[in-house]
Design goal:
This protein is mainly α and 196 residues long. Helix content is 68%, strand content 0%. It has 8 helices and no strands.
Length: 196
């Protein structure tokens, strides 16, 4: 029972005993990027929208690209990678919980959000998973757009105070691992189906 949670947390470089909230660079970078009371209200409002909307735009673009090209293997790879990313996030939440900045007494949350696990950012992970899957399926233009959308999400979610910079590092590592495993699953499962 103790092997899986340690593996799930460790697979993206986060030992279960390590609390990245206390890491100096993480706090310093958060304080630099996070909105303050002096920040323009229009920028905070814009960031609150950008902390959510790009995920849905990214998933819609990925779905449209895979449907347009009738890429069943790509769809399987994306679905497998996304499910794995959610499983890893759930395992980290259960066995290596990281509080969000506002829950740890750092800064202010400029949008309403539950004080649940912060590591990794699910929004950014799923966006970058979709980007990597599209890159692997020769959708380089779409993949580039999704990488940019993920970067916008990462900045916005730090800016409004609901994520740490380390959460985005975790998201990037998780996306690479999950997309790689999704790629393998797509080939293992799709090849026998095609040959039958």
């Amino acid at each position: 029972m103790s092997v899986f949670p340690a593996f799930a947390a460790g697979i993206i470089g986060l030992p279960t005993h390590m609390n990245l909230v206390a890491t100096g660079w993480n706090v310093a970078l958060f304080e630099y990027l996070h909105a303050s009371d002096a920040s323009p209200r229009w920028l905070i409002a814009s960031a609150a929208v950008l902390a959510e909307a790009p995920l849905y735009a990214a998933l819609a673009l990925a779905a449209w690209t895979l449907l347009r090209t009738r890429d069943r293997r790509g769809a399987l790879q994306l679905a497998s990678a996304a499910v794995l990313a959610l499983v890893i996030e759930a395992a980290i939440s259960r066995w290596a919980f990281h509080p969000r900045p506002f829950a740890a007494g750092m800064g202010h949350a400029w949008m309403v959000h539950a004080a649940n696990n912060s590591m990794p950012s699910t929004h950014v992970t799923l966006t970058w998973v979709a980007a990597l899957v599209l890159f692997a399926r020769s959708g380089r233009a779409e993949g580039t757009i999704l990488l940019v959308l993920g970067a916008i999400l990462a900045w916005a979610r730090i800016y409004v105070g609901i994520h740490w910079p380390a959460d985005m590092l975790g998201a990037a590592l998780s996306a690479v691992v999950c997309a790689s495993i999704g790629w393998a699953v797509g080939h293992v499962v799709a090849d026998p189906v095609r040959s039958s």
